[in-house]
Amino acid sequence: MNQRQLRFAKRMFREPNLPSDLAYQLQEKLQGLRSSVKTDYLKAEVFSKFVSDETDPPNVTRQRAINKWLSAERDNEATTDRLILTPEEYQILPRVSIKSFMEFCTSTIVDIIGESPPVDALIGSFSGGSSTSRSRTYSQPANKFYGKAHVTERCLEYFTDIVVNEVPGWINAQTSSNIQIELVPGNVMFTVPKKTDIDRVACKEPDLNMFIQKGIGKHFRACLRRTGINLNDQSINRSLALRGSIDGSLATLDLSSASDSVTTELVFQMLPVTWFTLLDAVRCQVTIIDGEEHRNHMFSSMGNGFTFELESLLFYVLARATAYFTGTRGVVSVYGDDIIIPTEIASLLTSVLRHFGFQVNPDKSHADGPFRESCGGHYWNGVDITPFYVRKPLRKIADLIDVANKLRHWGDLRIGSELFSSVIDEEVEQIWLWLKGFVPRTLWGGVDHTFKFQLVSHDTPSHRLYEVMKKKTTGNGGYPHWLNATWARTGLNEHVETSVSSISTNLHRLVPVLNKTVPRLEALFIHELERYMTEKT
Q1: Which residue(s) pair with 251 in the sheet?
Q2: Tens-place pLDDT, residues 284-335
Q3: 224 is in which domain, residue-wise?
Q4: Taking the CB of the first residue and of the last residue of the chain, which one, N or C, has fewer CB atoms within 10 A?
Q5: Are residues 186 and 324 in the same domain?
Q6: Quick one: 454 and 335 in the same domain?
Q7: How many contiguous H segments (helices) and E segments (strands) does the chain have?
């Protein structure tokens, strides 16, 4: 080992031996907190997404998720029949026919996205996620511009006729040796952990389908923003939920399996025919489940590049139409299936959504009482009671610091956005001090509750953890990826790195911090406040 390697090795962080049951010890201590609305809510939620070797095995949680997805598909088939067979005079709202309701919805959608798609809507991008042709390890966006590229037959026409003529670096891609196009029947299902007892289903899309899908999603997002729906900002819904918890004027609705319940028939009836034709061609009509082909009744699944924006558009229009026909004024806001509407139309919108195949989740929807929840914000009578979650065993210091920082932030006594007290809950202090005892002193003194590489505390900082990344060249794909990422750029002050990708080594090293002064924190524990007052005097 040379001198440089020796110096580097000395700076590498060696993980201490944490108790194997540390997460369960934490759970027991949290359950011992005195009862209040905020602490009781935390107790119920904090370990609801915990997954370990002692919870249900992965094959069980995976199969439950697949069964739920297939159940949604059976419901979708029934919804399709209902939408086709519903007579025009059917009253979806009191004295409002389904014909009038749908005419309003389709007209509103045209106002938002236009009668037909512009060419720019097909120019998307690649994400870093896995696709049908590439595992997560080899899914860096630049890699997808070269080599094997999967696509469905109907989508291929849009790629060869339009996209390759618009994207630099893909000109004549269909005759180039740089990309080898392969036809596939559809996407491939996989699951990811969601809660203790069940996974979440998503699908890996074919490469070129995803590229165009993301362009459509980006276009829808821009169109919705012009109507006041900003899908880049969850804080809008959180602030509205806070308001609703105070005065009861707004209700928050959350749907079960929302994206999996958008049927092809609904999209056909709602969108202009040219838009439907495009979306129908670039989506996947078939999903491969453990090697078996399933023909979908749902229009698109999680993993599709426009699913989130499309469902946001549909839910916004359905909510807006319900408000219009009932003469209800007030805010209508959506973020995916997080819907906020005036309280007086909550039950009517629930009925409308049911007709179109959507089920409101009663456990996460609130129109009565002082509680509201939306976009990760949970509020009771204007008080933020948002819990934090422990999702896995605490085996590494970074995981422990992450939970300790979240606990500290949760214990901060706030009403809305106003600081209620400069002292953090004394009971929380005892649990936090216990967690702090497992963290090496050299990692104390952080300021950012969302940063898991340094413990937030009123101590003189010394070092923080730095995740060691392995750099890997993106090869020939780096240049077309750069062209794609910068073609709409309006200024030269934005740096875009596409020539290399970073891969985690799961190793950390200690790096010194520049500011060696005790951080100034908005809220302190009692022992920190006492020290602070002593230091001031």
Answers
A1: 341
A2: 999 999 999 999 999 999 999 999 999 999 999 999 999 999 999 999 999 9
A3: 61-380
A4: C
A5: yes
A6: no
A7: 17, 21
